[in-house]
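Why does residue order matter? Because the sequence determines the fold. Keep that principle in mind as you read this record.
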Amino acid sequence: MTELSFPDGVLFFPVTAFDADGRVNRDVTAGHIAERVEQGPGGVFAACGTGEFHALAADEHAEVVRAAVEATAGRVPVIAGAGGPLGHAIACVRAAEQAGADGILLLPPYLVEGPTAGVVAYIEAVLAATRLPVILYHRGAGRLTTAAVERLLANPRVAGIKDGVGDIALAQQFVRVAAGLDRTTLFFNGLLTAEASQAAYRAIGVPLYSSAVFAMAPEIATTFYRASIGDDLDTQHRLLDGFYRPLVALRDETPGFAVSLIKAGLRLGGDHVGSVRPPLVDPSTAQLDRLAAILDAGRALVAA
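Structure:
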């Protein structure tokens, strides 16, 4: 296994396009990824949360990962989502390995919540099924403790941890555990619309974050990213106040809008990515109008 690393750039979480009959549209998905890779992201996270991993059958997941690998053409790493029922998670990591993915983002197990020992056992079963480096997603039914992180980081296939809980003190403990190792461990801010909380994560040594916004508005996401790593507080604050804060307010109106709004934003731009799959829902006409205004405001701020 080689150590996982990302070149400088926003981490891109593409959508999965569906056609009018609700089937995966491989060509549109690949085109979406190829076009965005031209915008200079640091990596592609295919069939993950923004890509509606929760709604993909195993064969669809494999198709999306293959499309991402081909569209990216080795320019940046491709990380494939996996998770849910243990057998499904193992099937996904094996398919991703065969497709040529560079790593795995391991999402939480499905439905039931086990004790920490059970979560660790779930993760270790998946790790044993692949040679790829794996990023652990600390959230929901996959929550970790400091002791669990210490044990799991002893496995060289664990490349990093993505925090979706938002407990900054605990996240900092994870960072300090990894600091004692003789290898690099990657840490990611995985909260919804992560730009809104990235200043806090960067302060504890977590420079990487998910950017679903990059999928629909790469110029906005990239401008914020450059401002973040360059300590340009004025640009960060202008975008937070004029774009991200109203986007978060709209997102919070309806469960699942962290994904639905991204697909809607792409459709507003003329991309035929289709609707979201149940249980997610599309925005109403009034919400689409507000999203369009928010995107216009963000783009104006970038152009100013």
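The chain has a mean pLDDT of 97.
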